[in-house]
Amino acid sequence: MKKKDQGTGREFKMAETGKVNLLWWVLLCLIILFLLDLNVNFTGQMWDQLDMATSKRLQKQRQNSSDAVFGGQGRLVTAAENVTSLPSLPSELRTMGQNWSLSSGDSCTKPVTNFVFIKVHKTGSDSTAVILLRFAYNHHMTMCYGTNGMRLTFPRTEIYKTNCARWKVFENRFNFLVQHTVFNKTLMDRIMTPGTRYIGIMREPLSHFRSQFFYFEKPLRYGLTKSRNPLGDFLDNPERYEHELALTENIGRSRERNKQAYVMGFPPHLLGTQDTRLMDNLIKQLDQWYTFVIISEYYDESLVMLRRRLCWGLFDILHANKKVNKQHNRQEYVPLTVKQLENHRRINTIDLRMYDFFNRTFWRSVEQETRKGFWEEVTYFKEVVKRVNTFCSKRTKEKHLEIPTSKWNKPFSVNGDFCGGLSRNPKIWAKKLFDQMVQSVKKRQHL
Ligand SMILES: *[C@@H]1O[C@H](CO)[C@@H](O)[C@H](O)[C@H]1NC(C)=O
Ligand SMILES: *[C@@H]1O[C@H](CO)[C@@H](O)[C@H](O)[C@H]1NC(C)=O
Ligand SMILES: *[C@@H]1O[C@H](CO)[C@@H](O)[C@H](O)[C@H]1NC(C)=O
Ligand SMILES: *[C@@H]1O[C@H](CO)[C@@H](O)[C@H](O)[C@H]1NC(C)=O
Ligand SMILES: *[C@@H]1O[C@H](CO)[C@@H](O)[C@H](O)[C@H]1NC(C)=O
After folding, report:
1. Each residue's pLDDT tens digit, 17-31
2. Does pTM top 0.85 for this prediction?
3. Among the atoms of ligand 4, which is closest to the Cα of residue 269?
């Protein structure tokens, strides 16, 4: 009896614990289902929207894409599908993009952290400067900093370490330069740490000419403020206006011609040449020295290319889609006559040939990268830029915006601080970076 009792007692207990276990399992399953559902609602929507936004534009590219980013049934397979397993990131973003190796066949492991940006006026270079300044700040880079706003040595073609603030403290450590200079490889190589890369930027020469003409108040300079079409008037007879100005201001070279080429490092004493072979040879020489030249007309594409060249993360190239220094002047867009256009081309031949050269170079490299999912990345990048800008323009409840991992980025999040920096004036960014440099030196001295 005792044995039996004990037996049934144990059986009873086992049956009971079985029931309890079952209940626990059911409860656990319910909780898991609930959590999964929450996640799907939470992140699924956002990626569905992204999918819808991208799918139309990408249908064509998708068909030819050798990359496996896109799945069947027109669905964008992003790592968002793995979103449930995303680690939540601390808001500290400084290490983002570091040592991020690309999955798309690139073998880079270490981001380039020493570079000079040749900042050409009126090309979108302010927006680019902001991106580079943020990167330099996040990577504690040491900038050759000029205290005169965004001007370092421009329009001079020479640059020495003494142009950099506190050069005695930072000497031999400069690995970043972004303010206005004129490219002079020989002299810049002497200031910067060995292996420094050069990045340039160019804009389609006619729109550049129009833009700088009004930005630098040329109508005033040439006494054309009363004209209905100052740009056209100037281009009707550029020599006459330049001659008059040269006489009154006693300057040797023309201030209007080939300004992009000048800043990009075309030898100043040869800017007057008519020899197109010589021009092309000098342009090819410059090409050897630049790691990459951004083409303003293809800005997002250029940034993606830059990211690939410098082994950066997607986070590093995020930008404000409202341009930092955009100005509109109705006179800028007045149509020009055939003769005016011809004169523009005649006096800016080097800019035109140089732009053409770098634009062609750019598209050749796009062709090469297409096999490595270049266009998919551009599309993805544009969507992320849009999302980040939307978040930054109407930050309400959410403190962070989390961008999950993808083929091109580790997961990262942006917050209010980031948003503040996204559209910060480059001059203020530069000062902020310089302050950080000074602080870190002070800290080191105290140790
Ligand atoms: C896709 O590839 C085919 C054949 O290579 C080509 O004819 C077509 O133009 C390509 N389409 C796009 C959108 O690139
Ligand atoms: C999702 O995660 C699995 C396992 O970690 C991985 O094999 C797969 O490539 C991931 N998918 C994407 C799109 O990243
Ligand atoms: C990045 O890589 C370098 C060398 O490959 C290493 O010294 C450094 O610690 C790495 N940084 C991070 C954040 O992993
Ligand atoms: C760079 O500076 C040197 C030294 O002053 C000068 O001789 C040379 O012409 C400059 N090069 C350019 C491209 O401005
Ligand atoms: C740049 O090059 C591409 C490809 O050759 C060409 O289609 C485009 O018209 C060029 N852009 C400009 C502004 O000249």
Report:
1. 566 677 777 777 677
2. no
3. 9
